[in-house]
Specification:
Largest sheet: none
Oligomer: single chain
Number of domains: 3
Number of strands: 0
Helix content: over 70%
Radius of gyration: 30 Å
Shape: elongated
Order of helices and strands: HHHHHHHHHHHHHHHHHHH
Structural class: mainly alpha
Distance between the termini: 68 Å
Length: 501
């Protein structure tokens, strides 16, 4: 029977985690919510009408929920909007959001200029966002270092069992009847190492958010390929008839199956990412062009048409041509945006498009609002570019540890054979046969481990598992090539030894 304290402890832990997750979501969306409030204030929209418009913004789910609660309390319970905002400030777990609401309410009640307050808050929050980004990169660096240490520790244990799990080698080297079951080494290679990597992948998933939040269709297709590839490897490993009928060994089969299961998804993700990253690069310039065109007196629609004629937007140009054609046919701007939103997966592009449409439709001082939007769109894009550049070196680190794992295991195997060769040539041939059988299985474990590491690197470098498929295939090929080349190049170093007679 569960102790009461245990039940309350679990309940408290669950509530604490839920509150922590809610705070993180709120603070992640806060800079963009403040930007929307600033744009609306610059266009002359009242604070309460800003909350009502916030309910339409699906790309900010936390603040959409918050806006629905504010509107519900005002229109259903009859409370004053400023009183509701003060109550929400007391309830929230986010200190940043609490300070923003408190200042918001004080500015309105004191009769201060709301636009100036919003601009100062927006500047402060984006500066804090830059600081937090640097801190998050430091945390990611610590996570990658911890992952590397985990690989080294588990690899050392793994290598020991590779050497000593064979009863033949133990008997030959020590004349001992001690027997270590190879099952333990198999568990390390095919269960413990993947589980440890999975834990680090989950930690990275909580630390790094994706620029493309909607990739479910990609993952569903990828799961089918991965399951087929792993099933094929298991079949070749467990069914004697298949392995004997295949001209290549089990490591070669593992590399082929894992790469074949990864490449279709990697290619599809490359097409998605190339279009969306190009759109992210072009979006700040596109908004800036619209802003400058409106300063000359053009209408919003003509400003957009003029901005879409620019030729250096790359792959994003085909979407801009679609926007231009729809506007020229008289399709409303919001409907045009909805048509484009179906084709674009980048959260940054969707958010900026949505804010631009809201700003133009609100009217008022739209030029000032667009100036604010273009300025902070450029700042946010610069932050993302710097973040991606700082995380790229970890891809090289993954290649290095894939090579080291393969080469180290090969060196240990060749050293074991050398030790038996020193004892006796007869013992050497027997030990070599025992070791080669096991080394083939353990090579598969190394290849699979490096393949899994690719998803960790994908999550670290780009924030999503879609990027991990290309890294997984690359690391699996690197591990296999390292295994083959190390055996060829190092075999000569361990030959020519005269056995003891």
């Amino acid at each position: 029977m569960q102790a009461p304290g245990g039940i309350f402890g679990k309940l408290f832990g669950f509530m604490f985690r839920a509150a922590s997750e809610e705070r993180e979501k709120t603070e992640r969306e806060l800079p963009f919510a403040v930007m929307i409030f600033t744009l609306m204030a610059a266009s002359g929209v009242s604070p309460y009408d800003s909350w009502k418009k916030m309910r339409k913004l699906t790309f900010l789910p936390a603040f959409k929920k918050e806006a629905e609660e504010v509107v519900r309390q005002v229109e259903v319970l009859g409370k004053d909007p400023l009183t509701v905002m003060s109550l929400q400030a007391e309830k929230t777990q986010s200190k940043l959001y609490r300070n923003f609401l408190g200042g918001f309410v004080s500015s309105v009640r004191s009769g201060g200029k709301l636009v100036d307050y919003m601009k100062s808050q927006l500047k402060a929050i984006f500066e804090l966002r830059f600081i937090n980004m640097n801190r998050s990169i430091e945390r990611i660096a610590a996570l990658v270092e911890a992952y590397s240490v985990m690989l080294i520790v588990v690899l050392c244990t793994y290598i020991l069992f590779v050497v000593f799990s064979s009863t033949n080698i133990m008997d030959l080297l020590t004349s001992s009847s001690i027997s270590l079951s190879p099952v333990i080494s198999y568990l390390i290679a095919f269960l413990i190492m993947p589980i440890m990597s999975g834990i680090f992948i989950l930690i990275a998933h909580n630390m790094q958010s994706s620029a493309f939040p909607d990739l479910k269709d990609l993952y569903k297709k990828a799961l089918i390929f991965v399951v087929i590839g792993i099933a094929a490897i298991a079949a070749f490993a467990l069914v004697p008839g298949l392995s004997s009928a295949t001209p290549v060994g089990l490591p070669e089969v593992a590399v082929i199956c894992l790469c074949a299961s990864s490449l279709p998804t990697a290619i599809q993700y490359y097409r998605i990412s190339s279009i969306n990253y190009n759109a992210e690069d072009a979006m700040p310039s596109f908004i800036r062009d619209i802003t400058e065109s409106q300063k000359t007196g053009l209408s919003p629609e003509k400003s957009i048409i003029q901005a879409t004629k620019r030729k250096d937007y790359g792959a994003f140009s085909k979407f801009l041509e679609l926007i231009r054609s729809q506007i020229e046919w008289g399709i409303p701007l919001r409907k045009t945006f909805e048509n484009i939103r179906v084709k674009i997966r980048s959260w940054f592009v969707v958010a900026n498009f949505s804010m631009m449409v809201e700003t133009i439709e609100m009217g008022g001082n739209s030029i000032q609002s667009l100036e604010i939007l273009s300025e902070y769109s450029e700042k946010e894009r610069e932050l993302q570019i710097n973040r991606r550049a700082l995380l790229k070196p970890y891809i090289l680190l993954a290649l290095i540890w894939s090579v080291l794992i393969a080469v180290t295991t090969t060196i240990v195997a060749l050293t074991t054979n050398m030790m038996t060769a020193i004892v006796s040539s007869d013992l050497s041939s027997a030990a070599n046969l025992a070791m080669s059988d096991q080394l083939e299985i353990f090579s598969v474990g190394i290849i699979i481990q490096c393949w899994i590491s690719g998803f960790f690197i994908g999550k670290i470098s780009e924030g999503n598992f879609g990027a991990g498929f290309k890294h997984a295939a690359l690391l699996a090929l690197t591990a296999y090539a390292s295994l083959v080349l190390s055996r060829i190049l190092l075999a000569g170093v361990f030959t020519g030894l005269t056995p003891i007679t």
